[in-house]
Write a structure and sequence with these properties.
alpha/beta; Rossmann fold; Alpha-Beta Plaits; 2 domains; 6-stranded mixed β-sheet; 4-stranded antiparallel β-sheet; 14 strands; about 35% helix; binds adenosine-5'-triphosphate; binds magnesium ion
């Protein structure tokens, strides 16, 4: 099957600075892929290359089999891009922003008008259709960015931090909306700093750090391989000295020594129990916390 997005040994420099350093990965058609990484990691740069907005020095990049350089138009036509920054023409109304976009992709005028009206309604922007984008609130601008990306009904939707600065209700609505698009067959490529959002939505995650791919796995695997469950021991009486034999476990002592927190790795639980028993300290209650993608992400980035 032809990948929706195929990136092979991509390297990109900004002058002397290597922003992307030999990355390779594919996104399958119909996939919901999350592309995560700290500020400046290279997410937007990668997206710019995939959408033909930025040049690159080495590698091959194709979209549904179309090379982004050689077949620029065909490759670009497959993608709806929701950029990180607002890049609207300040002289156009919301409706014109949508219909002009359709022009780039060859929609006929009547078709474009119909589609624009549909999307203005869907995104709750109908009343604002005659306003310039500067008169829209931040959340409305985000919605307009997404509506614009969908004008030509692309097979692939690339969203670069679509929920930045978006209120909770709109965020939930957007999640449902994007999930539904994906279920109907649209391939989704999402970047976000809300790791919880990626955990909820994405079936597979790529993590980029300083221009290199440092993880590429199904979401569940990434969570499980990066961190074990966290165990909390609530003690009947506080321990006053930290057991020497537990030093290797990096225990966290909380609540003045009445609570112990550690990762369930190897024989950690039995070691801690033994040490406590040896000191005559009783455990009152045990809590277990399932690790999240955020735990895995932080660990991965800190390790680097
Ligand atoms: N036009 C440019 N000219 C020079 N350097 C750039 C340019 N655009 C990005 N960079 C640099 O490339 C690196 C990657 O930037 P990029 O925007 O891809 O990061 P990002 O992962 O999208 O970060 P963020 O989460 O902050 O959006 C950064 O060090 C950035 O300063
Ligand atoms: Mg970015």
């Amino acid at each position: 099957m032809t990948p929706a997005i195929a990136i092979q040994h991509l390297t990109k420099f900004y002058r002397r600075f290597r922003a992307i350093d030999d990355i390779s990965f594919e996104v399958a058609p119909g996939e919901f892929f999350g592309f995560l990484g700290p500020n400046g990691a290279g997410k937007t740069t990668t997206i710019s290359v995939v959408t033909g907005l930025a040049n690159y020095q080495r590698g091959r990049v194709s979209v549904l089999g179309h090379d982004v350089r050689r077949d620029y138009r065909l490759a670009r036509a497959q993608i709806g891009l929701v950029p990180q920054e607002f890049n609207f023409d300040p002289f156009l109304s919301a409706e014109q922003i949508l219909t002009f976009e359709a022009g780039y992709f060859g929609l006929l005028r009547e078709e474009a008008r119909k589609r624009a009206h549909e999307l203005l309604n869907l995104f709750g922007l109908w009343d604002k259709r005659r306003e310039g984008y500067k008169k829209l609130s931040g959340g409305m601008k985000r919605r307009l960015l997404i509506a614009r990306a969908l004008m030509h009904q692309p097979k692939i939707l690339i969203l670069d931090e679509p929920t930045a600065g978006v209120d909770l209700e709109l965020r939930y609505w957007l999640w449902d909306f994007i999930r539904e698009l994906n279920q109907k067959g649209t391939t989704i490529f999402l970047t976000t700093h809300y790791i919880e959002e990626a955990e909820k939505l994405c079936s597979r995650i790529g993590v980029i750090h300083q221009g290199k791919i440092v993880a590429l796995e199904p979401t569940e695997n990434l969570i499980r391989t990066m961190s074990g469950e966290e165990v909390e021991f609530y003690l009947k009486n506080k321990i006053t000295e930290r057991p020497k034999e537990l030093e290797s476990l990096s225990l966290i002592y909380e609540d003045g020594g009445k609570k112990l927190r550690f990762e369930d790795k190897g024989d950690a639980i039995s070691k801690v129990l033994k040490a406590l028993c040896h000191r005559g300290t009783e455990v009152e209650r045990i809590g277990v916390r399932r690790p999240t993608l955020e735990d895995a992400f932080l660990k991965l980035i800190r390790k680097k």
